[in-house]
Amino acid sequence: MVIKMKGIIMIIDGMADRPLEELGGKTPLEAAKTPNMDKMAELGVNGIMDSIQPGIRPGSDTAHLSILGYDPYQVYTGRGPFEAAGVGVEVMPGDIAFRCNFSTASEDGTITDRRAGRIREGTDQLAETLNTMGLEEDVQVIFKESTGHRAVLVLRGPGLSDQISDADPKHEGKKYKEVVGLDDSPQAQKTSRILNRVIKKSYQLLKEHPINMERTKKGEPPANIVLPRGAGAVPNAQPFNEKYNLKSACIAETGLIQGIAQIVGMDIIEVEGATGGVDTNLDNITNSILLNATLDYDFLLINIDGADEAGHDGNLQEKVEFIEKVDEVIGKVMELEDVYFILTADHSTPIAVMDHTGDPVPLVIKGPGVRVDAVNQFHERAAASGGLCRIRGSDIMNILLDLMNRSSKFGA
Amino acid sequence: MVIKMKGIIMIIDGMADRPLEELGGKTPLEAAKTPNMDKMAELGVNGIMDSIQPGIRPGSDTAHLSILGYDPYQVYTGRGPFEAAGVGVEVMPGDIAFRCNFSTASEDGTITDRRAGRIREGTDQLAETLNTMGLEEDVQVIFKESTGHRAVLVLRGPGLSDQISDADPKHEGKKYKEVVGLDDSPQAQKTSRILNRVIKKSYQLLKEHPINMERTKKGEPPANIVLPRGAGAVPNAQPFNEKYNLKSACIAETGLIQGIAQIVGMDIIEVEGATGGVDTNLDNITNSILLNATLDYDFLLINIDGADEAGHDGNLQEKVEFIEKVDEVIGKVMELEDVYFILTADHSTPIAVMDHTGDPVPLVIKGPGVRVDAVNQFHERAAASGGLCRIRGSDIMNILLDLMNRSSKFGA
C-alpha cells in the first residue's frame, strides 16, 4: 500500500538574523539552544532560501505568497485586501479593499484626531451601524472592525477600480481629503464618487452614535468618521487547493497571514491564546498542529510570529528565548509520521536593524528519501552548506509536491 | 547616530579562470599570492556569481549592466551606443549610434583598406571636419574619433531606427555596401537614406583633407571614407542614481565600461595613467578610489582591466603577476571605514580559451553584519563553498542596498 504523505511548512516569522557582537559573532538562532531544530537539520536536507529574490526585503505577506507559489509581484496589489481577509471579511476577486482609521472630525471635516483617541472598545458596534449603509448605487459597502482604531472597508460591485487616492490627510488639523481617481477611467470615477459618499455618510451615521455620545461624555474624542486609504483590488488568485490538488489549512496567529490563507482559499484554524507575540500559547499551537495533522488535511501552513516581534523590538534576549521555546514545538511536530516537514523563516528580522531585511533564511526538509546532508545544526550559516544550496520561496511548493509524489511529469 | 554606509563594487575584469596543468591544476587566481584578497574572503561572506546566467558568456559591457541591475537583454541594443558613450559623446535615449572605421576607398567606392593603414594620428581633425555636416534633413550627425582607425557616429532626430544594415563590406577589394532597412518601417527607410548620404558626404569631405593629402604624400592609404556598422538605439535606461537613490561614480579604464556608466548616468572619474593594460598605473587608481570614497558619493563602481587583457593574450605569467599587483590595491581599499565592499570579476577570461567564458566568478562581500563564513581564500573554488552559495549579477545591487539599509520593504 502506498502511504499518502502529508506536507507541513512551518514558518518561524522573522527568525533569521545577522551575526551580533554581543553574541560573540553568533546570530540569535546560532546562540539559542535548539536541540530539536538541530536534530531536524541532521535528519534532513538543508539550504538557504530567498523568499522572493536575493536581497529583496520581503513583507511577511509577500514572503508567504511567494512560498505558497504565488508571484507577489502579480498577486500583491496592496495591503487592503489581505488585511480585510485577515479580519474575516470573505473577500472576492474584484472587491476593492481599504485599510481605514476611525478618526475624529469636526463639523467642517477637519480631522482633530486621526486615531480617535486610540479607541479600543465599541468599534464592532460602530462597524455594525456603518453596515446599515448597505448599497451605494449598485455597490455593496462592507465595514469590519480590526484592532484598536483600525478597520477595513470593502466595496463589492461592478465597474470598480483601486486607482483612487486616500482620504486620510496624514496630519491632524487638516480637512480630510476628497478622494479622486488616479486615472481617467470611468471605474476610478465611480469608485471615488461612491467612496466620497461613504465617508460623508460615515460621519452622519457615527456622529451621534451611542458609543460616541458616551466617549464625549467621558471627554474622549469620538470615533465619528472613517478615513480609507491603501485601495487594493482583491486578486484573482487560483485557489491553493485547486492549484495543487491538496486539502489545506493554515494555523497562523496574525490577521496578515490569515488573510493570505483566506485569499488563497485555505481553511483557517483559530488557536486560543495565540497572540502573535512572545507570550503566545505555544502549547495550544502545538496541540492544534498535532490534531489537524491527523485530520484529513494534506497540507498545513503554520506561522509562529513571536521571533519577528522580538526582532522588530530589537529585544535580543526575548528573541533567543522565544526561539528556544519554539524548538520544543518543533520537537513534537517532528514526531508526526508520514509527513514531509519543512522548517524555515519568511525573512530575517535582525535585532540590529529592527525591521525585515533581504538576507536569506535557513531551510530544512525532513522526510523519507530526502538527500540527507552533513549539516547537523539549524541556523543561517550551517544551512548555507547544505544539500539544497540556495533556493527561492517560489521553489518550495514544487519541491514539496515532488517529494509528496503529487507532481506530474512535464514531458515524457 | 546611524552611520550612512557607502558601497563599493570592484570588478577585476576577466580575473576568473579555469584550472591549468602548468599551474599544477590551479587557476591563476589560486596560484597568485593574494594575501589581501584572502583576508577579505576571511572577513566576508563569499560565493560564486553568474553575471548573466550560468553558462552564458558575458561581454564586459553586458556583465556590468547586469551587475548594475539592468537586464542586458532589454538594455543592450548593440555595442554602438555604449562605444559612443565611452568615447565621450553624450548620447540620449533614441539616438542611433554606430561603430565606424575610417577606411580607404577608391573613386568608385571600392574599399582598398578597411582600416586606412591603421591610421593613428589626425582622426580627431577628420572627425571635426565630418561634424561640419551638421544636419541631414532634420537629423543631427555627430562624429567622434575613437582609438586608431575607429570612430563612432551618432544620428539624433525624430523617426529613426536601428534596423538597418552595415556599410562595411568586411572584405577589401569590394565596394562598400549601400545601407538598407532591415524592416519595412518608414523609420528604417529614413535612417538608411540619411546614412547613405552621410557615407557619400564623408568621402567628399575627407578625400582632399589635409591629413589625407599628407598621408598620400607619405605613401600611406588615406582615411577618406567612414563605414558605419552595428547600429544600435540608445536605450531608455532609468538613471542609476534615480533607480537606487544613490550618488554614484565610476572609476574605469576602458571606454566600454565608461560608456556603460555614462549611459546610466554615473559620474565618470578619469585616472591619469590608467591604460586598461597590465602596465596601468595602479597607484593612481588606488588614490582615486581612496579620494572619491571620502567625497560625497554613496557608491563607487570600479573596473580594473589588465587581467582580462592578459587572459585575451593567453599570457599566464602576466595574468598572475597582474592579479598580485591588484591585490595591493585591495589591501588599501579594505582599510576604508563605513563601506560595504564587494570584490568580484565580471566574467572569466581563461588563459586556455583567450576569450570570455560563462564560468561563474568568485565574489566576496565585506562589511558590518554580513554572515562571515569559513572561506579564507579568495578564488573560484574556495568561493563556491561560501555562505552566498551561487547568485547572479542581477542580485548584487539588491543585496548591497539591503546591507546599506537603503531598501524598502515589499509588503508588510
TrEMBL record, chains A, B:
It catalyses: (2R)-2-phosphoglycerate = (2R)-3-phosphoglycerate. GO terms for biological process: glycolytic process. It comes from the Archaea. One of its GO terms (molecular function) is metal ion binding. Belongs to the BPG-independent phosphoglycerate mutase family. A-PGAM subfamily. HAMAP family: ApgM_A (MF_01402_A). This is 2,3-bisphosphoglycerate-independent phosphoglycerate mutase. It comes from Methanobacterium formicicum.
